[in-house]
């Protein structure tokens, strides 16, 4: 149920974001979703891609520093309060949420969000016990085709 995410470290300078994007494009690798966070000196580009192993090689070949982390994709009701309900489950279980971001697609009345938890296994167990749909990588990549 966990999904591999690549974290790419970039200098916070003009044109640095285009380096990984161009390298992946040239290799024919599609980005399913991404997040970019920055400080004054550097940024972290977080990517979810179907073939993360090849993407990691391509990015490292372009001279970039890449880390692999595990994230969890969760369906959240796409309505006011949907995210608040999921966050309440997480908070009541005492699970630390490090960050989150959204996919560009959902299904019917559900949005799909990416969560990075301090303890992803514990988070998955709690979420599933409360009826929250944790989306596996196969289902996620199938949805991305549409």
Question: Your description of this structure?
Answer:
The protein is an alpha+beta fold and 146 residues long. Strands 1, 2, 3, 4, 5, 6 and 7 form a 7-stranded antiparallel β-sheet that branches. The two termini are 21 Å apart. It folds into 2 domains: 68 residues, VC0802-like (2-Layer Sandwich); 74 residues, ACT domain (Alpha-Beta Plaits, 2-Layer Sandwich), CATH 3.30.70.260. It is built from 5 helices and 7 strands.
Features:
41% strand; Alpha-Beta Plaits; alpha+beta; VC0802-like; single chain; 146 residues
Q: Treating each run of at least 4 consecutive H or I residues as one helix, how many helices?
A: 5
- Characterize the largest beta sheet: strand count, sense, and whether it forms a barrel: 7 strands, antiparallel
Distance between termini?
Answer: 21 Å
Query: Mean pLDDT, rounded to whole units?
Result: 90
Q: Spans of 5+ residues with little confidence (pLDDT < 50)?
A: none
CATH class assignment of the largest domain:
Alpha Beta
As for the number of domains, it is 2
**CATH architecture label of the largest domain:** 2-Layer Sandwich
Our Rg estimate from Cα atoms comes to 16 Å
- Number-wise, the strands total 7
Name the CATH superfamily assignment of the largest domain: ACT domain
Which structural class fits the helix and strand makeup? alpha+beta
Q: Which geometry do the CA atoms define? A: globular
Beta content comes to 35-45%
- Helical content class: 25-40%
* CATH topology term of the largest domain: Alpha-Beta Plaits
Order of helices and strands: EHEEHEHEEHEH
